[in-house]
Amino acid sequence: MPTDYNEVNLELHRAHSARMYDYYLGGTTNFAADREAVGKVMAVFPWAEIAARANRAFMHRSTRLLAGAGLRQFLDIGTGIPTSPNLHEVAQQTRPDARVVYVDNDPIVLAHAKALLHSTEQGRTAYVQADVTDPAVILASPELRATIDLAEPVALSLNALLHFVPDDLGAHRIVERLKGALAPGSVLVMSHGSPDFAPEEAARISQVYANAGTRIQMRTKEEFARFFTGWELLEPGVAPTHRWRSDDERDAGTVSDAQVCAYAAVARKP
Question: What pTM does this model have?
Answer without folding.
Answer: 0.90
